[in-house]
Structure formats: C-alpha cells, structure tokens
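User: Predict Cytochrome P450's structure from this.
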Amino acid sequence: MNIDPVFGADRYARYANLRADAPVERIKTPPGTPGPAELWLVSRHDDVVAALHDARLHLEQPPQYQFGIRTLLNTDPPDHTRLRRVVSGLFTRKRIQSLRIAVQAIADDLIDHLPAGETIDFIERFAVPLPITVICQMLGIPADDWRLFREWTPKIFNTDEESVTTRPAAVAQLIQYMGGLVRTKRDHPADDVTTTVIQNGKDVLSEQELLSTLMLLLIAGHETTVNLLGNGLLALIQHPDQLELLRSDPARTPDAVEELLRYDSPVSHATIRYASEDLTIAGVRIAAGEGLLLALGSANHDPALVSEADDLNVQRNGNQHLAFGQGLHYCLGAPLARLEGQLAFDTLLRRSSEISLAVEPKELQWRISPLMRGLHALPIQLSSIAPAELAATA
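Assistant:
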C-alpha cells in the first residue's frame, strides 16, 4: 500500500479496512520521504497506544536514515529529557492562557479584513496567519516574516516532487534565519521565548541543538494549528447541523475543538519509531531496525475509542483522542493549539452568519505527507461579517 493523494482524500475508509483486515500493514512511503522506503503502519487504537508507550520503540534514526537535525521529535531519553526540560515551562496552561487577549485581537483583525460574499482561501487568509503571527510574537520574530516560514515549512514536511527537490534549500534558509535570530537575541535580550530558550539552554544545549529547538518551536507552533483550523472548518461545513449547534451554543467550543482534533487529526501519523529488538504487534513480527508509523488518525476513528467514531459530534465530551500523541512525546504545544482553535472557531462563527464551501469537495487537494493531514487550500464564502463590537454583544 502507498501513501498517495487518494489515501489523503479517502484515508478514513482505508483505515477502517486496515483495522479490520490488516492492523499492521507494510506500506511504501512517498519518494523523498526521510527514512525507510517501507514502514509498518499500525492502525488499531489499542496497538497505537501500546506502541506510544513501548520502550522498545525508539525515535532515534538508524545511521543510514539520519539527515542531521536532532530535535524533540527524533530523540530518546536521556537527550530527549534534557531538551524537553529547557522548553517545558514555556507552554504551560497558565502561561498560554495569558495570551488569550493577544490571540483574540489577531483573530478579530484577520476577520476584519475578510471580504463578505467573495471567495477566499481560508487557509491563506486565516488558518495560516493566525498561528504564525502568534508564534512569531512569542519568539520575538517580526510578524512580517511569517510568509517566509509558510514558504519553507511545507517544503520540509510535504513529500510531493517539488517539495522534495526544494527541501534542502528550505532547511538551509530556515537554519540561517534562526542563526541570525539567535545572534540578535544574544546581543539584545528581550522578553520572549527565543531569549528564554537561549538562557535556559546555556551550558545545556549545543549550538546545533539550540537552533533545532527553536526551529521546532517555530514550525510545530503553527503548522499543526493550520491543519486544525482548515480540517476543522471543512468538517463543520460538511456537517451543517453540527456547525449550527456550535454557533448557537459557543460554550460547547472547547469540547468541539477536541472533537475536531479527533475527527480529522492535524497530525495523521506519529513520528517514525524504530524497533530496537524483534517484537510482535497484533500477531505481526517486526524485526529490529524496522520502522513503524503509528496511525493517530486511524486510532481516533477506531470504535474501540468512541462509539459512532466516524460521526462528527461537537457535544462529545471526555474525548480521549490521540491527536497530540501520548506518553513521553505528548505534544508540548497542545495548550497553545487548543487556545488558538477555541478562539478561532468561536470568533469565526460569532462574526459570520453563513459559511459555505466555494468548490465541490472532490476539488479539494490534500497535502502528500506521511505525517501531516492538511489541505493545500480551502475556498469558502462568508455571507456577512459582523463588526467585533457588535458580535461581542450579540
């Protein structure tokens, strides 16, 4: 089986077939994907959860697959513990909640500039600039530079032919940019995340680890939220009863965001794990050194997790989805993604009276990526947009 554009559009039906007939299946990765050409795809919820906690599965890449960038995403303890300790205090729930007013102002400003009655690309006009502006402000990066990062990050994550060709240059440009940022903050410390990481990482991180950590914060700080907003809005448009239920009762928004994370997870597969020894999953033998993709999106649609798992239900509570992973590598930025998602959907539904898809669903194009689940574009129309002051009192 291949990860291809069809798999991107119709992955949940194919996941269901895998869970039923081949819960651990050999797959081919797209050409140009860093790592092995073939991996084991694990699709059942209980197997995925067990694998996320299995100490025999390592994130450290075997030497033949390494390409030089070591981050929290591909290291194991004790290095992972050391790296995470440097940044663990930056994304606490209390600290993220202190950003609420700033994130709300960004969301309102973006909506103020959306034209009612015209077709717009929601990804370009809202889903991208919201989290990029937030993370740029946190890192002390000029917000005007967000377009650079939106140009570079898809080339790093996507595996289409063009991205594979341009990936080395994008990585080099991002490293160069972050190096310049570090030099600036060392000379002129500020009240921002970059300065804090530099200070916390002194005598703890190598220069390469410092740059990689900041790069990860920048990329992970916006890329997954872009997909949450795009995938989530599409899901709501395609389920108008759920959209109107949420619009009529904004108090449901936190539960709705959890359901949107489960229903169409921004990260479809966890970072590749490698078996440190021979092991067996669901009766299938995995040889030492072989790689596994843990299908978070499939696990989130497994009836073993929730009943009516293929239905979108914004009233679902107690949602134990795996969109942020689990265990040692649980997503550090989960509180930030939740805050941005809640404010984005609340503001969008509160200030717009009707949201419709401007193309046929079959025309939408999904990114080709073994890890990310997201749209290239989401053309929509907003019938009307209320001023922020009126919407706040409605």
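DSSP finds 18 helices and ten strands in the chain.
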